[in-house]
Amino acid sequence: MKDNNGFWQSEKGKAAIKLGLWMIFIVVLIVIVIISEQGTTNLTDDEVIPPEVDSGENTDFNNYSDMLDNLLLDNYEYSYTITTENGKYIYTGWKNANKEIGFREDGNGIIKYFVDESNTYRINMDTLEIMTDLYNGFDSSYIDLHLLFENLSEYLYSVEKNGNIRTINYDKEGYQVIVTTDIENITNIQITVDTTTYDLEFTKVGECATIDFTS
After folding, report:
1. SS3 category, 44
2. pLDDT value, residue 98
3. Residue 198 in contact with residue 91, Cβ under 8 Å?
4. Which of 44, 95, 112, 170 has the fewest CB atoms within 10 Å, i.e. is most exposed?
5. Those residues with Cβ within 8 angstroms of residue 37's Cβ, 6 or more apart along the chain or in another chain
């Protein structure tokens, strides 16, 4: 019978053992390199990540509830475009400290207005005249952001992210609300009610100076 133990203890046997161990080491090293390369491969230009659609928050963006709290402090510049069956109304202005000053444009021309806690006024040169028709032609409750989001507070919403833009979609019975944000602030709210569309744009959130109008 051939003595196998004698072979492995010979010079040829020891060399075969060393060769086998080296081959095993090389194979393991190759496997580790392949796994490492697969883990660090970047997406090519042809690969597209589908948009996120859920009700969670992405860490790249400020928290949505914080954005909403900031907007409801009523300090921003705005541009509202309200389109109804009877025409289009455009409001541009800014708010701060429960005061508001701006311009309304419709089919009848342009007026300058001022709003505070007590009333709404038309500005004629350096004088104020009380006015009651600033929001005639549509339901102004939809541009009352405090009331709007109080009514939406119990409704779920979906979130879609596309680059630096995030869209929050409420589907409430009777009307639809789409809120758009950038990374830091709410930039747009669009409300659709039957045949009326409210397109509300916001800039300089938290940056507007105090309004001080002296008649």
Report:
1. coil
2. 85
3. no
4. 44
5. none
| Of 177, 170, 202, 201, residue with least CA distance to 191 | 177
The CATH code belonging to domain 52-203 is 2.50.20
Lowest mean pLDDT among 81-85, 96-100, 171-175: 171-175
* Dist. CA 212–CA 205, nearest whole Å: 19
DSSP tag of 146: H
pLDDT, tens only, 88-134: 999 999 999 889 999 999 998 999 999 998 999 999 987 899 999 99
Question: For residues 91 and 76, is the Cβ–Cβ distance under 8 A?
Answer: no
In whole angstroms, give the CA distance from residue 129 to residue 197: 29
Contacts of 121 (CB under 8 A, 6+ apart): 113, 114, 115, 128, 129, 130, 131
Residue 208 backbone phi and psi in degrees, to 5: -85, 140
**Comparing C-alpha atoms, which of 90, 72, 68 is closest to residue 81?**
90
**Token reading at 199:** 């397109």
Greater confidence (59 vs 176) lies with 176
Residue 54: beta bridge partners? 159
The pairs formed by 184-193 with CB atoms below 8 angstroms and a separation of 24 or more are: 184/62, 184/67, 185/62, 185/67, 185/70, 185/71, 186/67, 186/68, 186/70, 186/71, 189/145, 189/148, 191/142, 191/148, 193/139, 193/142
Q: Token pair 């507070």 is at which residue?
A: 153
Identify the bridge partners of residue 102 per DSSP, sorted by sequence position.
Answer: 93, 113
pTM: 0.70
